[in-house]
Amino acid sequence: MVSFTFDGNPLKAPAGCTVAAALLAGGVSTFRTTPVSGMPRAPYCMMGACFDCLVEIDGVPNRQSCLITVETGMQVRTQRGLRSLAAQDRETQHAK
Amino acid sequence: MNTSDLIVIGGGLVGTALAYGAARGGAQVIVLDEGDDAFRASRGNFGLVWVQGKGFGMAPYARWTLRSATRWPELAAALAEETGIDVQLRQPGGFHFCFSEEEMHSRQERMQRICDDLGGEYCYEMLDHAALAAKLPGIGPDVAGASHTPMDGHVNPLKLLRALHTACQLRGVRLHGGHRTSRITRTAEGYEVEAGDQRFRAARVVLAAGLGNRELAAQVGLHAPVQPNRGQVLVSERVSKFLDHPTTYVRQTDEGTVQLGDSMEDVGLDDGTTADVLSTIARRGVRSFPALQSLRLVRAWGALRVMTPDGYPIYQESTQCPGAFVVTCHSGVTLAANHVFSIAPWIAGGDPPAGIQVFTGDRFLDPNQTFHHAH
Fold first, then answer.
1. Which residues of B touch A91 (CB under 8 A)?
2. Other C-beta atoms within 10 Å of B105: how many?
3. Which of A33, A41, A79, A83 has the highest number of chain B CBs within 10 A, making it the mutation to test binding with B?
4. Taking a C-beta distance cutoff of 8 angstroms, is the pair B324, B213 a contact?
5. To which H or E segment does residue B9 belong?
6. Is the CB of residue B238 less than 8 Å away from at least one CB of chain A?
7. Is A18 helix (H, G, I), strand (E, B) or coil?
8. Nearest CA among B39, B62, B41 for reference residue B52
9. For A46, A78, B144, B167, which has the most beta carbons within 10 A of its beta carbon?
10. Residue A27, class by beta-carbon neighbours within 10 Å (0-12 exposed, 13-18 middle, 19+ buried)?
């Protein structure tokens, strides 16, 4: 099993599953809020087409959780509305 | 049931604008649309309601464009009131970026020439890098400057198409999707149109079928030598608002999506995408706003737009076949207001609007002229 957190809360999931599957198995029902209306959303297609599974992973926003394998120690957070361009810019600086 | 006052061939932005305008005037209208797998320039544009730079050496087009931009708020309000759909018209002024002093110089010459031709009802300014950075924070160091006018704007073209379709239906326009027009023949009362497996009759018919107009025009004694012209676009994830103004290479939609574009290729009926054009578009976007470096792209598409040999519209009633019209243009978004308020009443039986006499299809039959469509 892999240990990770969602909005600071500890969760476990079988190794090899996607972050989206891991969150759903852990009872998470809101992954993001839409930028247009603020309404809650959860995954729909589970295959990378619908963009409803967007979450923030390890500080990087707007990640499609159905396309990413869950890893030990991952810090996953609700994607609230729009991603900020400036924030990503700082992350790019960090990575350097 | 298959008869009306007017048949509109083509249910895209041009056809539905004409149908809506005619219906507002009380006409019974039928729209015949090929279907969702048609090339659909309506889904292949940048959503700009754009005035600056157009009509260089063709003042009637500059004036025609300016008139439509001026009446666009009326169209947006009418659609909102009738359908409840907000097409997100914003006209805050627009920028065309230049990446060298040479580009600045030739852009200024172009803008000044148009301004002179229009005798003063056309205001623009050239902004150097510092002045541009004051208006658009985040502009890249490579951008030498820009031309700016308060006349330019943008709209959500997908919502516009939906709003026009909805407004048409609410006004009793009969829209037949999946009905590709194959033949138009004259009858005693007007015209019979064969589309899909049905026949439709009306006193008047207008061809608004985009690339399909070429073949259909010949059937009613009109000349519409339109060619496909491909544009490719990059669409990004939704990000927080960093750009309120439309620009020719980058715009941000009401929902936060960034759209990158501006390309023109003559590749026949190929609406695919290519890595070289897309990377040029991406590189220019990042040069314009370096923060876009980390922007995640969601999809790319290519679309075929409609181009006449000189790039300018055709608005013509057939002399051989009175009551048959052809309408074609490259800027179906910008010109939508004119199509609803000025062209549609003419198509429906009124007088031709001022300013369009030069836009005949016959102008392309002149053997002494050569044409190019640099826009």
1. 294
2. 13
3. A83
4. no
5. strand B3-9
6. yes
7. strand
8. B62
9. B167
10. exposed
Task: Specify the residue for token string 């205001």.
Answer: B123
Q: What is the dihedral of CA B313, B314, B315, B317, to 10 degrees?
A: 180
Cβ count near B364 (within 10 Å): 16
Q: Which residue type is seen at B153? A: G
Domain A2-95, what fold? Ubiquitin-like (UB roll) (3.10.20)
pLDDT along chain B (375 residues), means of 10: 96 98 98 92 93 95 97 98 97 98 97 91 92 96 97 96 98 97 96 96 98 97 96 95 95 93 94 96 97 93 95 97 97 98 98 97 93 77
**Could you tell me the CA-to-CA distances from A68 to A9, A55, A57, A94, B103 in Å, in that order?**
19, 11, 10, 21, 45
- Give the amino acid at B75: L
The domain defined by B103-152+227-307 carries CATH number 3.30.9.10: yes
- Kindly report the backbone phi and psi dihedral angles of residue B165, in degrees, each rounded to the nearest multiple of 5, phi listed first: -60, -45
Q: What kind of architecture, by CATH, is found in domain B3-52+158-225+310-365? A: 3-Layer(bba) Sandwich (3.50)
CB B131 within 8 A of CB B280: no
Nearest CA in chain A to B254: A36
A92 to B293: CB separation less than 8 angstroms, yes or no = yes
**Which two three-digit tokens encode residue B339?**
């199509």
Give just the sign of the alpha carbon dihedral A83, A87, A91, A92: positive
pTM score above 0.90: yes
Residue B205: helix, strand or coil by DSSP?
strand
